[in-house]
Write a structure and sequence with these properties.
Layout lengths: L2 E7 L3 E8 L2 E9 L4 H16 L6 E7 L11 E2 L2 H12 L5 E5 L4 E6 L5 E7 L7 H11 L3 H8 L13 H13 L4 H23 L5 E4 L6 H11 L3 E2 L9 H16 L5
Parallel strand pairs: 1-4, 4-5, 6-9, 9-10
Antiparallel strand pairs: 1-2, 2-3, 6-7, 7-8
Helix pairs in contact: 2-8, 3-5, 3-6, 4-6, 6-7
The chain binds adenosine-5'-diphosphate.
């Protein structure tokens, strides 16, 4: 029995996936703290305990995410771009374009028919177009990020944010709340602003079908729907696993490939 794992330490969340023969047996998502090594351990311990395993049972573990070089228990590390590509292609073999929106950046990734990376583009210079933008707006509205997506789906007359700059948009949201605009309309306006920002990045690279979204923001249906509408493209939903786990899933799949290559005893 060969058991492998992937651990993705992101800016806001650490994720772990444990697999046996390309089948997911346990997953975990925990909040990232200031120390990537501790966040990684917390996520991995949670997944191991779910699977009733210990680290000694893991034949190969691949680390990814911005904190990947600091994870002490991994066998090797791989970039999150490659891991998101690997994970998405495993779940949707026809995928060619991936929009990954995490806590501190947004990446658009293009793959060839074999799942190899063709090119990518990143926005990591500005909070708008990242999960942090949504986290700040949800806080202003005193709701959770998951509510931000759900509530927006019943909006009748979404607000228009005057600016996509996080600081100005925050002031604008407060203005609309004080003007007693329905919460659903404010949520929808926030999601549309986010989708507009991301669509600029996606258009700069050019998307090819099939398209999917990964990262924590892929759970916000309001953003996913708005993005599809703005770009006039269908975004395939990942249903088999939480899309926030895509980097960790890809990392576990890389670990599995290593065991097949003879990098470890299978
Ligand atoms: P990172 O890898 O940078 O830590 P993630 O891919 O884990 O980023 O995504 C974090 C983001 O996901 C958060 O900023 C938040 O906006 C979003 N998010 C997390 N959970 C949910 C949820 N249930 N619904 C909507 N958005 C979510």
């Amino acid at each position: 029995m060969t058991i492998v794992a992937g651990c993705d330490v992101g800016s806001l969340a650490a994720k772990a996936v444990i697999m046996e023969r390309r089948r997911v047996v346990a997953t975990a998502i925990v909040r990232s703290g200031p120390k990537p090594a501790e966040s990684a351990k917390k996520a991995m311990d949670e997944a191991l305990s779910q699977a009733k395993l210990t680290m000694n049972d893991i034949t190969w573990c691949v680390g990814t995410g911005y904190g990947r070089e600091k994870i002490p228990f991994v066998t090797e590390s791989v970039s999150e771009i490659s891991c998101h590509g690997k994970g998405a292609q495993f779940l949707i073999p026809s995928v060619r374009s991936i929009i990954d929106i995490g806590g501190q950046d947004c990446k658009v990734i293009k793959l060839d028919a074999k799942g190899n990376l063709v090119k990518f583009i990143t926005n990591d210079k500005c909070a708008s177009g990242t999960g942090r933008f949504l986290d700040v707006m949800a806080k202003v509205m005193n709701i959770s990020v998951s509510e931000l997506g759900e509530r927006s789906l019943i909006a009748k007359n979404p607000i228009t944010l005057a600016s996509i700059c996080t600081v100005w948009a925050q002031a604008d949201v407060i203005k609309h709340i004080n003007a007693r605009r329905p919460a659903a309309d404010v949520c929808a306006g926030i999601n549309v602003a986010m989708a507009n920002r991301v669509s600029m990045l996606a258009n700069a690279l050019g998307l090819e079908n099939d398209i999917c979204m990964t990262g924590g923001v892929a759970k916000n249906k309001g953003v996913v729907h708005a993005l599809g509408r703005i770009m006039g493209k269908r975004i395939k939903e990942i249903r088999q696993i939480d899309p926030q786990l895509m980097g960790a899933l890809g990392a576990a799949l890389f670990a599995h490939e290593q065991t097949k290559k003879g990098g470890a005893q299978s």
